[in-house]
Write a structure and sequence with these properties.
This protein is an alpha/beta fold. About 40% of the residues lie in helices and about 15% in strands. The longest helix has 27 residues. The chain starts with a helix and ends in a 17-residue tail after the last strand.
Length: about 400
């Protein structure tokens, strides 16, 4: 009888242990992404002899269960609400509530100021080679460097938190000087914005990008810079655009990490052309019907910076059929997205690459194949000293 009781207990325990993951599998309803965390969820692991032998199956199951446990999002949202509103922690989910803006929590360790000149010189060298190559066939190259949102609003960090001031001042300054010394045409957008009074509305309170007003100011600055070099390009003036504030909640990247619980009245803005310049679009080599602004299906649905061009693509081509205008190539990080909705209207054909994703050929070979008249690099300053991606611009033939 005692043996029977023990076996019955073990069977019940085993059934309970199996019921949890089985119930989780049914509850998860095959969800593949965590919206607020902006990432893919762990897939159910495959049962193989190798995973059993190596012992990785248990860890994989644990990761899957952690991602698919019933009520996971509700629990995480509740925890965020407690930390944000009840405990009033200065940083929640690695996001700092700094007055009227949200900023990332930064580590206290950062490079010393004296390290930057040598790093900047090395970073500028491949861009100098790229610029010389473009000039060799009669094109022009310009690098537009932007402050990231945390850099633009760095004065808003509480005094007891790191704002990476050395990176923002010594690092950015060394980079601009190194580019100039290497002969690279560098447009310092931080200096442009400062000359315009460092407007608050140029950058988002809840996203790591600029606001559309900052993108439009950058568009005008880039075209004015090209005009100084002799390029006579059509310009979308403020009279040509209808700036519209979207009704959708703008959850963006920072408030997204807080499950949209931070009080926020900011709305995304789009610039609709009153007389639109028609275009034919291709994404990653395939015809695309995506518009310049990809909007949610209903006004109550949240939106993010991905509304501009529909987010990042490895390659986007916009053709306007105006052969009298020059062709352009833009490459860089997601700061290009909002600019693309404006810049394409000033060129015949606009090609856009994100070298973090594009791997069909090297940038040098791509430029050699299409020979664009104007090549623009658009990057934010937190990428200046990172290797690879949109800094991987030169490969020896």
């Amino acid at each position: 009888m005692e043996h029977f009781s023990q076996r019955a207990f073990l069977l019940c325990l085993l059934a309970a242990l199996l019921a949890v993951p089985a119930g989780t599998a049914l509850w998860s309803r095959k969800d593949t992404a965590a919206y607020y965390e902006n990432r893919s969820l762990t897939e159910f692991p495959s049962l193989t002899a190798e995973s059993l032998w190596s012992g990785t199956l248990g860890g994989d199951l644990e990761s899957w269960y952690s991602d698919h446990v019933p009520g996971r999002t509700t629990l995480l949202k509740a925890d965020t609400a407690v930390q944000l509103h009840l405990l009033r922690r200065p940083a929640v989910n690695e996001v700092v509530s700094a007055g009227d803006v949200l900023l990332p929590l930064l580590p206290y360790e950062e490079r010393r100021a004296e390290e930057y000149p040598a790093l900047a010189k090395a970073a500028a060298e491949p861009f100098a080679r790229l610029s010389a190559y473009i000039q060799s066939y009669g094109g022009v190259f310009c690098y537009a460097g932007f402050p990231e949102q945390r850099v633009y609003f760095r004065d808003k960090y509480p005094d007891y938190l790191s704002r990476h001031e050395t990176e923002a001042s010594a690092g950015d300054g060394a980079y601009a000087r190194a580019m100039a010394e290497a002969g690279v045409d560098f447009l310092d957008m931080a200096a442009v914005y400062d000359a315009q009074g460092h407007p608050r509305e140029y950058y988002s309170a809840v996203d790591h990008h600029y606001h559309y007003y900052g993108a439009y100011a950058a568009y005008r600055a880039v075209l004015e810079h090209l005009a100084e070099k002799g390029w006579d390009l059509p310009v979308l003036t403020e009279e040509d655009l209808d700036f519209r504030e979207l009704p959708n909640p703008y959850i963006a990247t920072r408030n997204r990490k807080l499950y949209n619980l931070w009080p926020n009245e900011e709305r995304a803005v789009i610039g609709v052309q009153r007389t639109p310049v028609p275009f034919t679009r291709y994404d990653n080599g395939q015809p695309s019907d995506k518009p310049l602004f990809v909007l949610p299906a209903a006004d109550y649905l949240p939106t993010t910076y991905n509304l501009y061009m529909g987010g990042d693509f490895a390659e986007t081509v916009l053709e306007t059929g105006r052969a009298e205008l020059p062709n352009a190539l833009i490459f860089g990080d997601s700061f290009t997205n909002a600019l693309e909705t404006l810049l394409y209207a000033s060129f015949n054909e606009t090609r856009v690459l994100d070298l973090r994703q594009y791997d069909e050929m090297s940038l040098r070979d791509y430029i050699g194949q299409y020979r664009p008249d104007v090549v623009l690099c658009i990057q934010n300053d937190t990428f200046y000293y990172l290797g690879g991606g949109n800094n991987d611009v030169w490969e020896e033939p």
